[in-house]
Design a protein that fits this description.
Structural class: alpha+beta
Order of helices and strands: HHEEHHHHEHEHEHEEHHEHEHHHEEEEHE
Radius of gyration: 24 Å
Number of helices: 16
Oligomer: single chain
Strand content: 15-25%
Strand order of the largest sheet: 8-9-13-12-11-10-14
Distance between the termini: 52 Å
């Protein structure tokens, strides 16, 4: 599997994509500023200190996961990003782009695999895991020695040794059932000693313990770290606060919506009311509800597709939804597109109704130019509003 990931063969599983998308940008001046446990929830590229640069790398890597972009294709994107930002980095272009590509993809695949193998159903069928070393140009002796070793899935050894266990490590873990043990005459062994050694992180000045055979910075299990974060998210999962008729006025409702969006941006769990649908949108979609909901899934997808949007843009959603310039038809009759304007910026918001028409959900949100807004209206026609309603720059 790991070798296929490196070559860009096939599309990433949904859990791998979710793992990558939930990460939070973390600017860093040099490698080592992020602790090992942070790699399960934070996205960093050593030397990338600006949000815009990190956003571009995120988009390129997200494309690689979703569309199966190969390393050679990613290298082209890498060169374009470097040129666009004037980024000075360490190492040769080919080496640096490969490190960024391989490390992020193998980690995402491994975390997604960990998510799948730790469900109650999977653990019931496959209570053991087998370490697998795959052929590579420069094999690590310890990784070769671990090849074929079988341990219980809940053995603490996996907390520090779940691959990848170093730069360009292609090792994987495969689940093993009780039937597999009998069929292949395999045995479950005791975990090898950690043989931890002190390592002084040059970026932080801190000394941490790193097990023998593990590259510094990889002495954690990103999939487990992600799972722990997911458990915390579920514990703080948000539910939409939808007021009843006459409970609060429009201003209070918009303030509540902004506060709930701010919470969702932080915890990324659950769904919130992001805006109040105007009558024209309700008529266009044939619904009675005026509550437009934003789910954590849609938010994560939108943040990955449009990382240029800031938190302030999302906090504008209540005003953008309640008071659009125009409404145009979408590609399907169950959704419509709002063209809105705020503080000198035009926005495009796609809103979809559920099949039974009981709820409205925000599906996508992006900023675009006045010219693109005009082109959209001219090409599709307006259900409500029009070109003359677009604010002048």
């Amino acid at each position: 599997m790991a070798d296929e990931v490196i070559r860009g063969v096939g599309l990433a599983p949904s859990d791998a994509i979710r793992f990558f998308r939930q990460k939070v940008n973390m600017p860093s001046k040099r490698w080592g500023e992020l602790e090992a446990q942070a790699h399960g929830t934070q996205f960093a590229v050593a030397g990338a200190t600006s949000k815009a640069l990190l956003d571009d790398f995120r988009k390129a890597l997200n494309k690689a996961l979703v569309e199966g972009t190969t390393l050679s294709e990613f290298r082209k994107n890498f060169d374009g990003i470097v040129k666009r930002h004037g980024w000075a980095y360490n190492g040769s272009p080919g080496w640096r782009s490969a490190i960024i590509y391989e490390t992020n993809l193998t980690t995402a695949y491994a975390a997604g695999r960990y998510q799948q193998m730790t469900t109650p159903e999977a653990l019931d069928i496959y209570p053991y895991w087998r370490y697998r070393h795959h052929a590579c140009q420069h094999p690590r002796p310890q990784h070769v020695a671990w090849d074929g070793m079988i341990l219980p899935a809940d053995d603490p050894w996996w907390n520090t040794h779940y691959p990848p266990n170093g730069w360009r490590c292609h090792c994987t873990v495969e689940p093993v059932s009780r039937r597999d043990l009998k069929r292949y005459n395999w045995t479950v062994s005791d975990a090898p000693p950690l043989n931890e050694k002190p390592w002084l992180n040059p970026a932080t000045g801190k000394t941490v313990q790193v097990p023998d055979g593990i590259d510094p910075g990889f002495q954690s299990n990103p999939g487990r770290d992600w799972a722990l974060g997911e458990a915390e998210r579920i514990a703080t999962r948000l539910s939409p606060v939808v007021p009843g008729v006459g409970e609060i006025d429009a201003v209070q409702r918009e303030n509540t919506q902004k506060a709930e969006i701010q919470k969702l941006l932080k915890v990324k769990s659950g769904s919130v009311e992001a805006g109040t649908a105007p009558d024209a949108l309700r008529d266009a979609l044939g619904v009675k509800t005026d509550s437009v909901l934003l789910s954590d899934d849609s938010l994560s997808k939108n943040m990955a597709a449009h990382p240029e949007l800031e938190a302030v843009d999302y906090l504008r959603l209540p005003a953008l939804i309640a008071d659009p310039l125009a409404i145009v038809p979408d590609t399907k009759p169950t959704s419509s597109v709002l063209v809105s304007y705020y503080a000198g910026q035009h926005y495009r918001i796609a809103i979809k109704r559920t099949g039974d028409g009981s709820a409205l959900f925000l599906m996508s949100f992006l900023s675009f130019s006045k010219e693109r807004a005009e082109t959209l209206l001219k090409s599709r026609g307006a259900l409500w509003g029009g070109l003359t309603d677009i604010a002048s720059e």
